[in-house]
Protein 1
Amino acid sequence: QKEVEQDPGPLSVPEGAIVSLNCTYSNSAFQYFMWYRQYSRKGPELLMYTYSSGNKEDGRFTAQVDKSSKYISLFIRDSQPSDSATYLCAMSETSGTYKYIFGTGTRLKVLA
Amino acid sequence: NAGVTQTPKFQVLKTGQSMTLQCAQDMNHEYMSWYRQDPGMGLRLIHYSVGAGITDQGEVPNGYNVSRSTTEDFPLRLLSAAPSQTSVYFCASSYLGQGNSPLHFGNGTRLTVT
């Protein structure tokens, strides 16, 4: 079993829809949670970074962490065609381990 | 601010050839790392460094060498290329300190080994 599981999609939604992207994980030592957006032929770009449990909002993006369920989510409100990309979740343990584990990514397509 | 810069963007090698992938960052990050990205496999760590003169192996280090002589640069060397090393390679960096800072990525080098 992989440490981090992420549905590869593809996920197609109409413009303006609310998008929900999710990852599950098995390692209870993960404390830091990240979401990256990756456009085709580009490097991953950091979207959200959270520590421990709770919610974090940045514009149209909201990240949620539920450590009791080992489940993290990224919500995109009012989705736009420019949001079409692959979204990667990533996690790391406590400070000093230098170990980041990535999900395989979910491909999202927002239809105009 | 350039961030993380990788060169070349594309490379084709024949089996057995060697080459160096370059990575430079201008953010004064102590931590630098190399990943490879393959379909269905996600990003896998090859090697990483926590400062000049300090390197360590990641998940898939075989066939690759690294060195870190300066804070800014972290080259990745393929010693004798194999078709299994066909992949997209990303360099990433971050600050070290309290808590694990998020990684900042370059735009990758697409390598094909024939």
Protein 2
Amino acid sequence: DAGVIQSPRHEVTEMGQEVTLRCKPISGHNSLFWYRQTMMRGLELLIYFNNNVPIDDSGMPEDRFSAKMPNASFSTLKIQPSEPRDSAVYFCASRTNPGQGRTDTQYFGPGTRLTVL
Amino acid sequence: GDSVTQMEGPVTLSEEAFLTINCTYTATGYPSLFWYVQYPGEGLQLLLKATKADDKGSNKGFEATYRKETTSFHLEKGSVQVSDSAVYFCALSGQAGAQKLVFGQGTRLTINP
């Protein structure tokens, strides 16, 4: 099992540019989560999907942030336009749905370190 | 709402010392409790978990017991190693059907040889 795959691992961009982060969840997992980690705010849940449908996006900071999950094996988090305060490590995680007799453990990807200049 | 409070770091210990990282939680009902570990430059990895009161999770010499009476899930290890240096996160997942993980702020642990 390859685990959760994220790309790119590092992204440096200039303020105002569009940034797209990508995530491939573990095969068979049907919940996907996007988190942001900063020194000041710790680990924050931005949005999560069940069966490709966004369930809770209350953590998305602004309209500049958007997330999609067009199919069960791919999700994107887009920031447009980016700002320096968006600099952070963005993690994707996946898990099986509860109620299927499996664990409710979330498995995290290695993260994308975003720097907005 | 649900919340997790962790012992503030950073924590610095010598190799073979005893480790305790405190974690308390506030939640309705019967959450599942987790400890995740983050090594430098990596994502979070599940270290151990417990899903009901009095359960003990254990892995790699680490242990934590779900104490409902004190709403705690303290992480312990009898003899730490340099390789245990990492950031440790306590987290909870709410009642059945609730999918969010609520994380504590993390505790940075450094083990000196």
Protein 3
Amino acid sequence: QSALTQPASVSGSPGQSITISCTGTSSDVGGYNYVSWYQQHPGKAPKLMIYEVSNRPSGVSNRFSGSKSGNTASLTISGLQADDEADYYCSSYTSSSTLVFGGGTKLTVL
Amino acid sequence: QITLKESGPTLVKPTQTLTLTCTLSGFSLSTSGVGVGWIRQPPGKALEWLALIYWNDDKRYSPSLKSRLTITKDTSKNEVVLTMTNMDPVDTVTYYCAHIGFSTTGWYAFDIWGQGTMVTVSS
């Protein structure tokens, strides 16, 4: 299985909104509503931000939202804050009953 | 409070077998709907999913590493063990274990992560 495709980097100014895409195939992202998003600050373990495409775990800010269209899932962060600067990874369940991560996106808050 | 902690050798030689232990706290892998997975990350690079085991002993493996991996659970010790054979310098990465709880975040999302353990493969 190949890693899901994410842009290497995105950037935005405080207060703005950004969207990170995660492109797979009909055998993973497009075939199941099991896309998750993780935030990882340098030197820290990842943190779950979105599960099952658009659900937020308890305690995650509603500035984070997820969606999916076809084989591409998206994470949108609104009202950008300095602390949002981190790496973001998507993951998906696959038709092989396995999981696959994306290549990661570095978010820079200008 | 759910926590997970990885432990194991920090240095292994090429061709050796790596054994990592994930010690669970605040939950049990004998509880329906619970799973534990292993994920690794090379320095400065992306996450890579390795393996997953559920409370019912359902096991899943990364297709690219399946021949080298074994995941097991010991509910009496509250541990999950991952073994990886034939270690190579490219396996020099940080290894994480993480919790899955169906009742809170579904079957395939890791909601609680360990701190990670760095393993170096070198002769």
Protein 4
Amino acid sequence: GAVVSQHPSWVICKSGTSVKIECRSLDFQATTMFWYRQFPKQSLMLMATSNEGSKATYEQGVEKDKFLINHASLTLSTLTVTSAHPEDSSFYICSARGPGLAGRWETQYFGPGTRLLVL
Amino acid sequence: RKEVEQDPGPFNVPEGATVAFNCTYSNSASQSFFWYRQDCRKEPKLLMSVYSSGNEDGRFTAQLNRASQYISLLIRDSKLSDSATYLCVAYNFNKFYFGSGTKLNVKP
């Protein structure tokens, strides 16, 4: 249980295009999803918290007009990187808050990530 | 000060060794704690939750010390497949705070 899918797994695009990444919780409902970015050999960086039916909460330094987040249902959140530039190339990972192990604390489950390369 | 701090390592150990990682957290109000494992170029995967009473899952034992605000992970009988980065996580106020990870290399 507690599976999160992410699509696409790889994107290569030209500078200036917009890229949409989907994150789905497959076997549970997730009122809260998270979007992270990870550069090579660096730790995960939380970009924003996505709450179903309301606006996302962005971390300091993350441009909300550049990284558009929509969480329209309990199983789907999308991240759109608008007018992507080479410096946006990174590993984007979503996660969803879901049932804990052995029925205890809720925790988060990660999607497999999307590698974005902007040329 | 970071919410969660870990020794980045790397810890280089031979197969069969026992290895322990510690992690400290700064917010005493943190409600729950976890260890994740992340393989190179992959997403983090939940390894285990960490309870005050301590918990064990096969070769892995996790402990929480609220008084000293640290979490530990003990791996016994290390396998080559245990090589990964281990992330310590503290949860409070609807946010999960990740440590930067401890890298483990298990050598034959």
